[in-house]
Amino acid sequence: DSGVTQTPKHLITATGQRVTLRCSPRSGDLSVYWYQQSLDQGLQFLIQYYNGEERAKGNILERFSAQQFPDLHSELNLSSLELGDSALYFCASSASQGGTEAFFGQGTRLTVV
Amino acid sequence: AQSVTQPDIHITVSEGASLELRCNYSYGATPYLFWYVQSPGQGLQLLLKYFSGDTLVQGIKGFEAEFKRSQSSFNLRKPSVHWSDAAEYFCAVGALYQGGSQGNLIFGKGTKLSVKP
């Protein structure tokens, strides 16, 4: 158990809908990272938050957004969903802004139908 | 641009045989390097990491990796593979942020390991 909790584990939704994925980092970790894993793109970094502030942005679509709350949990919002958004979404946390190992949650499997 | 290449998509080894998974990186500075393992339906578990110092690093589950700057490689090894090692293995490098710090991970495409009885 990495200590990173993601909910829900599975999500099935229709095209055009909006969903929210939730992540609770390890106790004491200030950084949260979101990654998308798909068969064609592999593991892609989406966005990082550190202590409530956006720290870095990767290949995140404009339809996607995230935030980190004062209690350090994070949410990834995916809107106007398309079939191609079906993927495994991982959250990871680390103690600092970077330069240390990240611990991954079990992921949320999103299926868009 | 920083990148990670894992040349082998799929490797099959016999149980008890030795294993080496290859990883090459492209990076403008001294990288932070990682190996993660993903079992089917599971998240990513850190096997080992290299930040600096001794270029041979030991990890969990009997794995080790060697950082070779001259070859831009960070290959993962295990002397004797167990059936439970069947999984997908990802090499990663810490992305270089402005100011020289390293943050999010850049992953290779992964190598799927199958183990024959």
Protein model, in words:
The complex is a heterodimer of chains A (113) and B (117). Chain A is mainly β and 113 residues long. Chain A is 0% helix and 53% strand. Chain A contains no helices and 11 strands. In chain A, strands 2, 4, 5, 6, 9, 10 and 11 form a 7-stranded mixed beta sheet that branches. Chain A has a 4-stranded antiparallel beta sheet with strand order 1-3-8-7, with no helix packed on it. The mean pLDDT of chain A is 94. Chain B has 117 residues and is mostly beta strands. Chain B is built from no helices and 12 strands. In chain B, the strands form 3 sheets. In chain B, strands 2, 5, 6, 10, 11 and 12 form a 6-stranded mixed beta sheet that branches. The radius of gyration of chain B is 14 Å and the shape is globular. The model of chain B has no long low-confidence stretch (mean pLDDT 92).
What characteristic shape of chain A results from the CA principal axes?
globular
* Derived structural class of chain A: mainly beta
Distance between the termini of chain B: 41 Å
Biggest chain pair interface: A-B, 23 and 24 residues
- Enumerate the spans of chain A where pLDDT stays under 50 for 5 or more consecutive residues: none
**Average predicted confidence as pLDDT of chain A:** 94
Determine Rg of chain B (CA atoms, Å): 14 Å
Order of helices and strands of chain A: EEEEEEEEEEE
Q: How would the blueprint of this fold be written?
A:
The complex is a heterodimer of chains A (113) and B (117).
Chain A: E1 5-7, E2 10-13, E3 19-24, E4 31-38, E5 42-50, E6 53-57, E7 64-68, E8 74-78, E9 87-94, E10 103-104, E11 108-112
Parallel strand pairs in A: 2-11
Antiparallel strand pairs in A: 1-3, 3-8, 4-5, 4-9, 5-6, 7-8, 9-10, 9-11
Chain B: E1 3-5, E2 10-14, E3 19-21, E4 24-26, E5 33-38, E6 44-50, E7 56-58, E8 64-68, E9 73-78, E10 87-96, E11 102-107, E12 111-116
Parallel strand pairs in B: 2-12
Antiparallel strand pairs in B: 1-4, 3-9, 5-6, 5-10, 7-8, 8-9, 10-11, 10-12
